[in-house]
Amino acid sequence: QSVLTQPPSASGTPGQRVTISCSGSSSNIGSNYVYWYQQLPGTAPKLLIYRNNQRPSGVPDRFSGSKSGTSASLAISGLRSEDEAAYYCAAWDDSLSVPYVFGTGTKVTVL
Amino acid sequence: EVQLVESGGGLVQPGRSLRLSCTASGFTFGDYAMSWVRQAPGKGLEWVGFIRSKTYGGTTQYAASVKGRFTISRDDSKSIAYLQMTSLKTEDTAVYYCTRGLWFGEYCFDYWGQGTLVTVSS
After folding, report:
1. For A45-88, what is each residue's pLDDT tens digit?
2. A7–chain B nearest CA distance, Å
3. Which is the most buried residue in A41, A92, B56, B81, by most CB within 10 A?
4. Which residues contact B62 (CB under 8 A, 6 or more apart)?
């Protein structure tokens, strides 16, 4: 079971800004970096954001991440049809039972 | 170009074993940790475990759900990571992804394979 909580869905029209939240605890988000992954339909996940707000090479600057306390968020500005995907946050957890945890996932729909 | 290709998936009966392989190319395999992540049909992502590079001891960590049943190993000479799964349960049915772990104070799973489907059913 996921220990990082995300809203199950989010939506917007092309060009809009969409924000996805990720809520954790002091043992994960509160003390470690946050990562975001994008999973397009029928494909493998892809790293979108690392170290809370860093973008790997090739990821458009329309995607941005932030973190505050035990929560994090991913913002997609200038929403495009190709952004329709599932988005997962993740973090290392200081507990021994599940060292690395994923969020519950958010399906973004472009209306 | 970094490539990770999983193989070995298929249909297996509950209680049996299966070994998955992840063949890597496009980078110096021995310098990186390797991890496995799974996704049950229609569900979210679940981290399975990982193995550090030999530089960091080649040690492993696992999720509680698979600890004692799954073993991750690596063969740096062949650039292959393995996931040995024993005592399989129906709830282990999932697509299994191999990922590369980049160390920068924490491990970041920056590249993923396309996945291989494991179905546990009688």
Report:
1. 999 999 999 999 999 999 999 999 999 999 999 999 999 999 99
2. 13
3. B81
4. B48, B49, B70, B72
